[in-house]
Amino acid sequence: MRFFLDTANLEELKTGASWGILDGVTTNPTLIAKEGVPIEEQIRKICDIVDGDVSAEVVATATDDMLAEGRKLARIHKNVVVKVPLTRDGIRACAKLSREGIRVNVTLCFSAAQAILAAKAGAYFVSPFVGRIDDSGWNGMELIQAIVGIYKNYGFATQILAASLRHSGHVIEAAKAGAHVGTMPFKVMDALFNHPLTDKGLDQFLKDYHKVFHDASVAG
Ligand code: E4P
Predict the structure, then answer these.
(1) Which residues of 90-100 are buried (b: 16+ CB within 10 A; e: fewer)?
(2) Which of 2, 64, 93, 177 is the most exposed place for a label (fewest CB within 10 A)?
(3) Is 83 labeled as catalytic in the residue annotation?
(4) Are 57 and 84 contacting, i.e. CB atoms less than 8 angstroms apart?
(5) 34-38, 132-136, 215-219: range with lowest mean pLDDT
(6) Rounded-to-integer distance, Cα 7 and Cα 46, Å
(7) Cα(124)–Cα(76) distance, integer angstroms
(8) Which one from 34, 83, 176, 187 is the annotated catalytic residue?
(9) Whole-prediction pTM value?
(10) CA angle, 89 as apex, 118 and 177 as ends, to 5°?
(11) How crowded is residue 26: how many other Cβ atoms within 10 Å of its Cβ?
(12) What proportion of the chain, given as a percentage, has pLDDT over 70?
């Protein structure tokens, strides 16, 4: 499973990249607006920090405008994946951009039917929003499972990018279901490290060692 950070914040991305487990980044207009920097400039900075796929979303809503915006975003860096919403115009733009060799992430996917449309349009990624489905009283993970099954049936090449992951349980369940990628906010990725038995075990190991060997470290 590839791990992406769902943020446009450079400090969070630098920390994530320093862990050596970060495979890419997803952004959306809300996340870009939060940083207050124009999208092209911010995406360029993100590509300098993270060596992996970086999704950059169009804000146009008509196909021709999405195409123009998408081509412009794709020119920023070879790692940019153009994100378009799962609308009729978005699917039309996805089909065209994909035929031009531009990788597309179809976002705001909330049903298996929509995921089939994205795959048929040649999307590189489809992004089902797990957390937002849970918020509305449905089961987001069931959608991930359904899409995994459908894509397997037909050998669709589109990768399933489990999005809107809100906690460690979502990450684990998306991995169990076979999602290719999980994208998560920094705080969710950071929380994956935590286990009280790790802290307790480490504390005991160090106490035992230093009781016998008083020098600070193996290296020292
Ligand atoms: C995905 O690419 C989206 O940016 C994101 O996962 C949305 O998550 P949210 O529902 O927590 O805003």
Answers:
(1) bbbbbbbbbee
(2) 64
(3) yes
(4) yes
(5) 215-219
(6) 10
(7) 18
(8) 83
(9) 0.95
(10) 20
(11) 26
(12) 97
